[in-house]
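Duplicate of #3305? Posting structure anyway:
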């Protein structure tokens, strides 16, 4: 028991070291270098013409008595800019696919074999906004398509700081923290090579329990794909259904 106690105490001290040396900014302080880090990352993300990305997401739901329940999900995307994307999203109970070839988008649920197809044109960025605004459909990793564009302005940040460095899945990253509106959010960006986000944490300050979502992000800059990757062929037995636009949009 003594050895276990010492081990846990040693680990706690190790984890506390970065925090002890991190310098908290004054209230409302915006570090220009922390803002520039987002600009550099956004510019690089917008320059990527073809990539694959996977994410593992955990989120918290707060019960009436304050107890938190954690849920997990995953998503895998293959992207070819400006107008092709295939996304697969999974939870313990659901699986969904989004396929876009620049001319039409298909939403598919493999378990139920339901699919819906809409004629849509435009860039992936425009598609993300259209799905959200007109159909209340969220594309996974939406921020990856918004960083570095006017849709993700940085002039509203209330605070921005460099929180030091950390290891994310074995890779050294620069850690930044921001406050904007009702959200606190942190991002870990690769410290060497091209700036890619590897982890994002969002804290909801509208809830006194401060629930968080955590996204771990893995990159493949040379994904395998072909013409069929962004084409949807209804499998045998699949049923086509209509997509209902959101009300009061």
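Output from current build:
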């Amino acid at each position: 028991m003594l050895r276990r106690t010492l081990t846990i105490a040693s680990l706690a001290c190790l984890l506390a070291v970065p925090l002890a040396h991190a310098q908290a900014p004054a209230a409302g302080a915006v570090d220009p270098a922390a803002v520039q880090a987002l600009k550099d990352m956004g510019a690089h993300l917008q320059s990527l013409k073809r990539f694959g990305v996977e994410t593992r997401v955990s989120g918290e739901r707060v019960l009436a008595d304050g107890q938190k329940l954690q849920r997990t999900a995953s998503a895998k995307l293959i992207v070819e800019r400006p107008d092709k994307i295939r996304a697969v999203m999974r939870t313990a109970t659901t699986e969904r696919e989004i396929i876009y070839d620049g001319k039409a988008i298909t939403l598919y649920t493999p378990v139920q074999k339901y699919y819906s197809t809409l004629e849509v044109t435009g860039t992936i960025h425009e598609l993300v906004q259209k799905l959200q605004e007109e159909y209340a459909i969220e594309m996974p990793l939406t921020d990856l398509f918004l960083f570095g564009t006017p849709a993700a302005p940085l002039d509203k940040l209330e605070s921005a700081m460099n929180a030091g460095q950390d290891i994310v899945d074995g890779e050294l990253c620069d850690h930044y923290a921001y406050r904007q509106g009702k959200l606190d959010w942190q991002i870990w960006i690769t410290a060497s090579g091209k700036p890619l986000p590897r982890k994002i944490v969002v804290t909801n300050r509208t809830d006194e329990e401060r629930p968080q979502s955590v996204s771990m992000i893995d990159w493949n800059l040379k994904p395998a794909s072909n013409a069929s990757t962004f084409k949807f062929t209804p499998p045998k037995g699949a049923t086509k259904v209509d997509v209902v636009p959101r009300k009061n949009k």
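Confirmed duplicate; merging threads. The radius of gyration is 20 Å. The chain has a mean pLDDT of 88.
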